[in-house]
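Render this sequence as a predicted structure.
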Amino acid sequence: MSAGFREPRRHSDRLTDTPRTGAEMSSLLLFLIIIPTTSTLEFHYHDNREIEQYLLQTNASNPDITHLYSIGQSVKGQQLWVLALGLSPRRHTIGIPEFKYVGNMHGNEALGRVLLLKLIDDLLHGYRDNATWAVQLLNSTRIHILPTMNPDGFDASDTDCVFTTGRYNSNGVDLNRNFPDPFAGLRKKPELDEEKREAEVRAVIGWLRMESFVLSANLHGGALVASYPYDNSNGGSELMGGASVSPDDDVFVHLAKVYSYNHASMHQGDRCSGRPFLEGITNGYQWYPLIGGMQDYNYVWAQCLELTLEISCCKFPPVKQLPAMWTENRKSLLAFIQQVHLGVKGQVFNSSGVPVQNAEVEVKGRRNMCPFRTDKHGEYYRLLLPGNYTFKVRYLGHEDLTETLTIPHGPDQYSAMKHNFRLRQITTTTGHTSANPTEATLTPTSEQSLNCAGGGATNRPTWSGLGLTLGLVAVLRYQID
């Protein structure tokens, strides 16, 4: 298993590497035996230990469709637990897109924690009840949920609606200003200063390298709006009418509207501060410039289209409002996941029929700062609205391939259109492979190559099969109330 990623220990009473004493073991085993075999998930703010227990119990109860793993630790050493849900939760399946939700990036913006736990509960109950919507989502998508990215900040926060106590991590750093910023220049290797980043940010960066995420959202509070890239600009051609416009702006606008219009009131505009947001969406830069944000990093360097969802006027809503806020957001959360099936997906094969990593798969008219590339499985995913698109596929030693595809509306079928590209090798008159004339544009410099190595899953961990002891599964039940 790669460094930074860990699974729960085989013995379910040990969540860290710290050994327990005999007395602690005896107390815990007694606790496990007397706890009822049913779990509840009530509407309140569960502390970090309760979240950990709930995720562990959920994983133990649903080992066929869930997988619990940690992407790293917070500054104070708390595990950043992720629960993956799907038909093959432990590993990627070719053709099944990877999706993620991240909550509680700002520790005092706490509603996301509650909603993501309820989402897990809702998906699993729906699947077990054979509800069509849940079965279709989990059969077609691998969903990763990180309920809290900033557990230390949550521990320090109060319940104020406006103030910032608990916003930052334990080092006093705003995690949504700490990611390498693409507008600082692609020649600045993000790897060089990675060790200077906060622990929580390094964990997410490592996570993005391990999985080929296609679509994502991070949940915040303090406003009611769906914000989309770019958050920043360097004053170039991306600036249009006060917005910093990405090549996939039409897709981002669509994604933001999917959330806002499925929400009970977001599409009516933000009524929190008096500033209206037309249709409940905004370009991030047009709202206010933000350097080092997570959604720009996801989009430019990880090929993952991410939104920032501001889901409550109050950063820490009163407990009595939580059921209504779940009802307001539930349909949006589910509809947004389904959008991972927009556009087209497939593999790129070389002349021998072998899938190839790092092949460029670009769409005419969409000049991304970092070209979209295939991952270690030769896979590509392009989220696109219905229409006709011309693709150019490039790979060293092979002829450029240009094809025009007509893309339908994939989410309705829970699958993007499938299309594989087969390349032809370039040969000279003597039969030897020649240099690809596009090689210079594929890898203009070693720095550029490092910075734009997209596709994720370049060093996927080999899971060792660690899990919970079957003998304890029957008694491992935690009450989260």
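Summary. The first helix runs from residue 22 to 34. Confidence is low (pLDDT under 50) at residues 9-39, 430-450, 459-481.
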